[in-house]
Specification:
Aspartate Aminotransferase, domain 2; 13 strands; 14 helices; 4-stranded antiparallel beta sheet; Aspartate Aminotransferase, domain 1; globular; alpha/beta; 7-stranded mixed beta sheet
């Protein structure tokens, strides 16, 4: 028996681009690891799914009618709006539409890893502006990194994994500093903070804003995202987008999810209250953390970060170890969900920290508490 070996090679950039392998296996415990809605989508979504017909499954999906409804919901024109297969596809479409092989793209790390993956698919010239030990957005150095070759800039606000926001004033300044480049503002966690650049697409010609329906709306499994920008920019993005990128069930469910604003309001209120409880619990335990504006909190555990994740899994709670992110060695992220899930997360955290013998650094305890009180990362 012989084994065939292909001599066909991929593009050079594909060979060297990074890979993203989410640790999704055996996620049967309480899911406080992936920033998903930890409870459920609106009950109306489930009702709509049950109305799916066999004939409906035989049809190609029509994105445009739902896209028009979504545009109206957000006060946009249809030509300013594009539904995508999650924000992941949106990021890739932006790279396909605007990046040549010699162009530069800029990100501030640590941030969402899919920026790295998608840029490197098109260009090897990814400029990473690393935050200092505070993990705060490096605004001045980000501005200084802009060159005539810069074609795409991607900023997440609130940022993943820190939960930090970038101010509207800073984002406007970035866009103005590079009118020859697209500024993509990723607002995946918008609902847990409330500040948005969506209205600014009318006055900032190089701005594109992204949203997801995976988090607050609880539709992660349906893969739904949205980007919005002026019609001229969006024409080019739409040109590289496939006609059937969103499945029909997702398109049917999105309008009813948007209509149930009371449900989304209830869930985001749960997260806001739970986030404060979590940060207060971490202060009580002496655990350093980054004050968050999202549905998660990044906490500083130190050398025992892996042990903590293993202990928490043993107690039925999943965490996300972020130590491989640039500048995040020893950091672990915990998702904030409904009240009961926050309670279970805190209880498991207290037990697990004790089991692994974790102790706060008492030489820094006073300054740690003071910095947290002021909303500064320890």
């Amino acid at each position: 028996m012989t084994t065939a070996t292909s001599t066909v090679r991929p593009r050079a950039l594909v060979e060297v681009m990074p890979e993203y392998h989410p640790p999704l296996a055996a996620r049967t415990a309480l899911r406080l690891d992936f920033n998903e809605n930890t409870f459920a989508p609106s009950p109306r979504v489930l009702e709509r799914i049950l109305k799916t017909t066999s004939e409906g499954l035989t049809k190609y999906p029509e994105r445009e009618p739902t896209e028009h409804l979504v545009a109206a919901h957000f006060g946009l024109a249809p030509e300013e709006t594009l539904l995508t297969n999650g924000v992941d596809e949106a990021i890739r479409l932006l790279c396909l539409a605007f990046l040549e092989a010699d162009d530069e793209a800029i990100i501030a790390t640590p941030t969402f890893f899919m920026y790295d993956v998608s840029v490197r698919l098109m260009s090897e010239h990814l400029v990473r502006v690393q935050a200092d030990a505070s993990l705060e957005f490096p605004f001045e150095r980000f501005l200084a990194a802009i060159t005539p070759r810069t074609k795409l800039m991607m900023v997440s606000s609130p940022n993943n994994p820190t939960g930090e926001i970038v101010s509207r004033e800073q984002l406007i300044a970035i866009a103005a500093a590079a009118p020859h480049a697209v500024l993509f503002v990723d607002e995946a966690y918008y609902h847990f903070h409330g500040a948005t650049m969506l209205a600014d697409i009318a006055t900032i010609p190089n701005l594109i804003v992204g949203r997801t329906f995976s988090k607050a709306y609880g539709l992660a499994n349906l893969r739904l995202g949205m980007i919005a920008g002026n019609a001229e920019l969006m024409y080019w993005v739409r040109k590289v987008c496939g006609p059937y990128n969103i499945n029909g069930i997702a398109l049917d469910c999105l309008p009813v999810a948007l209509e149930d604003e009371a449900y989304v309001g209830w869930y985001t209120d749960q997260v806001a209250t739970g986030r404060e409880r979590m940060m207060a619990g971490l202060r009580e335990l002496g655990v350093g953390y980054f004050p968050s504006h999202a549905n998660f909190v990044l906490m500083k555990i130190g050398p025992k970060h892996k042990e903590l994740c293993e202990a928490m899994r043993a107690h039925g709670v999943l965490l996300r170890d972020r130590s491989s992110d640039p500048g995040c060695e020893g950091y672990v992220r915990i998702t904030i969900g409904i009240e009961d899930h926050v309670t279970r997360g805190l209880e498991a955290l207290k037990v697990s920290l004790n089991e692994i013998g974790w102790k706060p650094d008492m030489t820094k305890a006073d300054s740690l508490r003071e910095r947290q009180r002021k909303g500064v990362n320890p």
